Model the fold of this input.
Amino acid sequence: MAGSTREIALLTNPSAGKGRGARHRAAAIGRFRDAGLGVRDLVGRDADEALDLARAAVADGVEALVVCGGDGMAHLAVQALAGTGVPLGLVPAGTGNDVARFLDLPRTDPLAAADRIIGGRTRTIDLARSGGRYFVTVLAAGFDAIVNERANAMTWPRGQMRYNLATLAELRVFEPLPYTIEVDGRRIRTDAMLVAVGNGPSFGGGLRIAEGALLDDGMLDVVIIKPLSKVGLVRAYPRLFAGTHTTLPQYEHHRARTVTVAAPGIVSYADGERFGPLPLTIEVAPGALTVLA
Done:
């Protein structure tokens, strides 16, 4: 792509990362244009308009769809890109940036991220799919999803602290849930604190819930955390960032191509975005996404 007059689309969430989105976008656009790339500069007023803009750009034959934002913007972009062969580029500007973490992209330097895109090297990764919707990272379907629901309903504070407070609030009242899980047709009935379905290993800014999951192995990683005391759950939480929760006796791990998760009253989250109420069937979509990485 270096030195070409070909066009990329740059889709930005300007409010990502407390305004980092707008700043990183300005830096990246300058670097792209200096490299001779045409840039179609896209900003949607909301998620629906942003997705419409993304789909239109892909249909018009842009060289790549680059998003400036966090995992939510990557999630939006893959809905337009899955199966097309048009590559996804990332200029990370969110709070979590787990997709960029998987792909070993610069997470704090927009110029270095832009240079990776200009370099034009691609790789192919899997996506996870439920119906016609895709995700890149992890589907959360338990305690973590309930925390997300509570955090989204809170107007104060902003950022990570909102999730910390929502976590504490839910810890006081949360009880294990009865799950029915089908893993490649094998049924598991169990009570659990959470069930997560990972295409990649982490979500929520480095919570390595699906430790060991690979983005290109054609498999999903299903993690079940069996009932813990509230104190046990608090103690286990820091271990998620290190990936050492895998030694807990309550940890259970399965690999599958298709998984169905059912539990009462749970709205699942994927890539940090509201995904849909359980039950859901999720399947791997091998090699469905090309990325500039």
Notes: The chain is about 35% helix and 30% strand. The longest helix spans residues 16-34. Residues 184 and 279 are 15 Å apart (CA to CA). The longest strand covers residues 280-292.
